[in-house]
Design brief:
This protein is an alpha+beta fold. It folds into 2 domains: 14-146, Glutaredoxin (3-Layer(aba) Sandwich), CATH 3.40.30; 164-208, no CATH class. The chain has 7 helices and 11 strands. The protein has helices spanning 24-28, 44-55, 57-62, 75-89, 104-108, 148-163, 187-193, and strands at 14-15, 22-23, 32-37, 65-71, 97-99, 123-128, 134-140, 166-167, 178-180, 199-200, 206-208. The protein has a 5-stranded mixed sheet. A 4-stranded antiparallel sheet has the order 8-9-11-10. A two-stranded antiparallel ribbon has the order 1-2. α4 links the parallel β4 and β5 (97-99). The longest helix is centred in the C-terminal third of the chain and has 16 residues, at 148-163. The radius of gyration is 19 Å and the shape is elongated. The chain starts with 13 loop residues before the first strand and ends in a 5-residue tail after the last strand. The relative contact order is 0.15. The structure holds benzoic acid. Residues 39-40, 43-46, 142-143 line the site of benzoic acid.
Length: 213
């Protein structure tokens, strides 16, 4: 199993899920994907994470993103647990949870870190673009629930920086100023792309209002 790095093709797989057996690339279609592993069903932190993802369904859809969760628990367990999540959060779990009891996906994506957690996936996140390339990864320990606002923020940054020659500064939030990439030096091109102008704090740190999507 090779380490997966940014820019790598996200491995395809076929696996059972709460929405039926699926082939990953075909299921993703032309959407972005957030593939995220959790350690185990019927655990408190995981229950809040999957509920939060379900509650954010409209935010994911607005960005053309499909969430998909995974653990190495079997399908029957997932199906029972989904009822708890829906009762706790009061929203339907509208995304699939992969039942990876045979570890097909956990192995491909290196989601089991035995020195951290024996026999279960840690909290991995893979953000995958419509070309099926891995664009961001995070890994959290079992004891720390993820911040799904951060997942959305990274997707916003990726989608903006794919569309324009900009990067996002520390703690950037949508709507805030962005950085013009240092490689863009031509003043005519800068004026064309950024008609609102820019503030140069140093020759290489040039802030401009976010371009329209
Ligand atoms: C949890 O989701 O609550 C959890 C899972 C594994 C270890 C610790 C906490």
């Amino acid at each position: 199993m090779a380490t997966l790095r940014l820019g790598d093709l996200a491995p395809d797989f076929e696996q059972d899920s709460t929405q039926g057996r699926l082939r990953f690339h075909a299921w993703a279609g032309d959407a972005w994907v957030v593939l995220f592993s959790h350690p185990a069903d019927f655990t408190p932190v995981c229950t809040t994470e999957l509920g939060r993802t379900a509650a954010l369904a409209a935010e994911f859809a607005r960005r053309n993103v499909k969430p998909i969760a995974i653990s190495v628990d079997p399908l029957a367990s997932h199906l029972q647990w989904v009822r708890d999540i829906e009762a706790v959060q009061g929203v339907p779990v509208g995304f699939p949870i992969l039942a990876d009891a045979d570890r097909t996906v956990a192995t491909l994506y290196d989601m089991v870190h035995p020195e951290a957690l024996a026999n279960a996936t840690v909290r991995s996140v893979f953000i995958i673009d419509p070309a099926k390339r891995i664009r961001a990864t995070f890994t959290y320990p079992a004891s720390t629930g993820r911040n799904f606002d951060e997942v959305l923020r990274v997707i916003d940054a990726l989608q903006l920086t794919d569309a324009h020659p900009v990067a996002t500064p520390a703690d950037w939030r949508p709507g805030q100023d962005v950085v013009i990439v240092p490689s863009l030096r031509d003043p005519v091109e800068i004026a064309r792309r950024f008609p609102a102008g820019f503030r140069a704090l140093t020759p290489y740190l040039r802030l401009t209002p976010p371009p329209a999507a």
